[in-house]
Amino acid sequence: MGQLDGKIALVTGASSGIGRATARALAREGARVIAAARRQDRLEELCRELAAELDIEVGALTVDVRDHSDFEDSIERLRESGWDRVVILVNNAGLAAGLEPIQEGVLDKWNRMIDTNVKGILHVSRLVVPGMVERGEGHVVNIGSIAGREIYPNGNVYCATKAAVRALNKALRIDLCGRGIRVTSVDPGLVETEFSLVRFDHDQQLAARPYAGMTPLGPGDVADAVVWAVTRPPHVNVEEILLMPTDQASAEHIHRKSE
Ligand code: NDP
Ligand code: 8X3
């Protein structure tokens, strides 16, 4: 028996990294997980793995969080299949694109980050939170970042989107206060996932640099923090968790063995 038996948990960005590990960890606690992302093959693979390991059904939702109406249709499909009573929403889908100074910034990259990291959370929350309000029960977990608390060189727009996540986390806390709904921000430092590959357009060498000579967090470490937050008693709201690798003391202060 898990601590989340039968509760429906929707995890965005579940096809990779932190989202995938979180979907797995929540399922291991007994949650009925809906894994959402754009890459259907990845989601299906996760569903197969979890079904084999845990003998449970996992829902896959192929969706782009940037597209509000696409998500609206998905929620309708969930309603039809009885999977729409989401108790735990993990707003995790996100990305960084590039690392250029503002004066050399690329508009398309800025739009991708803002549309996914900020508008994505708003789109999904707008569609899922009303059901939580109606039922007087729910927990929204937003995956922020150390980048939302500290600006590092050339982090500009990515940092701004994560600062926005921090603001939205507090805004949700305030707007939902008294409704029985918890809101948590989990803000990690460096986590080794596909994040860096995406940021550097799949250049393996560039992507490996942030983790060189140091031990980063793994996606499972962040998933553990999410599970801890959502398994506190209902009257306890863990408002924020800043989770850093031991080798990282700030956005820029990183101990590397080769230095
Ligand atoms: P990954 O690249 O491994 O995973 C990102 C996930 O987001 C993928 O599942 C991807 O799925 C999904 N995603 C991206 N765009 C969209 C979209 N438009 N619609 C739906 N899903 C989308 O990176 P991480 O696991 O590291 O990143 C997860 C979150 O953690 C992000 O919000 C990131 O900013 C944050 N974070 C990461 C840190 C790190 O060092 N790795 C540190 C701090 C925070 P698909 O491509 O299939 O759609
Ligand atoms: C991801 C961590 O330091 O690359 O949010 O911004 S960092």
Describe the structure.
- With 259 residues, the protein is α/β, with parallel strands linked by helices.
- It has a single domain (8-243), classed as NAD(P)-binding Rossmann-like Domain (Rossmann fold), CATH 3.40.50.720.
- Helices cover 43% and strands 15% of the residues.
- Helix 4 links the parallel strand 4 and strand 5.
- The chain is globular.
- Bound molecules: NADPH dihydro-nicotinamide-adenine-dinucleotide phosphate and 2-hydroxyethylsulfonic acid (8X3).
Summarize the structure.
This protein has 259 residues and is of the alpha/beta class. The chain is built from 8 helices and 7 strands, in the order βαβαβαβαβαβαααβ.
Low-confidence segments, given as residue ranges, are: none
Q: Look at the structure and give the mean pLDDT.
A: 97
The hetero compounds bound to this protein are: NADPH dihydro-nicotinamide-adenine-dinucleotide phosphate, 2-hydroxyethylsulfonic acid
Strand content: 15-25%
Which structural category do the helix and sheet elements fall into?
Answer: alpha/beta
What name goes with the CATH superfamily? NAD(P)-binding Rossmann-like Domain
Number of strands: 7
Q: How much helical structure, as a percent, in the residues?
A: 40-55%
Strand order of the largest sheet: 3-2-1-4-5-6-7
Shape: globular
The N- to C-terminal Cα distance equals 47 Å
Helix count? 8
Number of domains: 1
Radius of gyration: 18 Å
Find the CATH topology: Rossmann fold
Largest sheet: number of strands, sense, barrel closure: 7 strands, parallel
